[in-house]
Amino acid sequence: MIRILHMSDLHFGTTRNDLQQAMLHAATRLSPDVIAISGDLTQRARGWQFDRAARFIASLPAPVMAVPGNHDVPLYNLVERIFVPWRRWRRGLSDEVAPLLSMPGLSLVGMNSVNPWSHQRGRLWPSELAKAESIFRAAAPDDLRIVVVHHPLEHPDGSDKVLAAGADAAQARLAAVGTDVILCGHLHNWHVAPYAIVKDRRGMIQVQAGTTLSTRVRHEPNDFNLLEFAQDRLVLTRYAAFEAGEFQPLAPVSFARSAKGWIASEPPLRRNRA
To answer: Of 28, 86, 105, 243, most Cβ neighbours within 10 A?
Structure first.
């Protein structure tokens, strides 16, 4: 079994200390194989915020793949934002803004969906899609193929944000190379569902996390996701902090992989690790 822990929208600068400790305890207890963070690690891309994010990541008990969000580029320094938007990210966190990670049975591609010329709306860049296509075409046939990206490729009903530019084309291109799961954030609302059914397009699953550590919640508790994959079955469990300083599991959602992609499935896959 492969276990992936998914966090998003940490927003260091507006984080709760009790949730940082609770998250570290939960990650240690759940023992994931890899941890994915889908953007907005900082609130205003300040050096001290990246420092805190880096210390938090260093304390996590598994390899971490993190991609930037729109809050991870300077907002008010327009010269830096336009000409060197990733300088602070690279100084404080990582040389990579679109990292790759692979292990037996799993291929993860980080995609940078931030548009430095737009504060909120992202863009699915052709170069990022081409990289994902190349990696997934070379992956083993049974690998779980996951994209980690900040901006969703499809918004649930009720969202008041504008969909990222190029999202529709990105869905088609990623589905065509066998992508299984999109891990994302940005909306600060939890959501998991297969993408809308489109004729002749392989079905993928979009998994959104809300905000894991920040006080910037939107009528929902802080949360993170645990994905468990084995034998063409995927179980997703949301962990939510309804009480101060503790994440609790909610009812899992289960999917099965078919020739046409992913469909809802019951019962959930049995876990082999506590």
So the answer is: 86
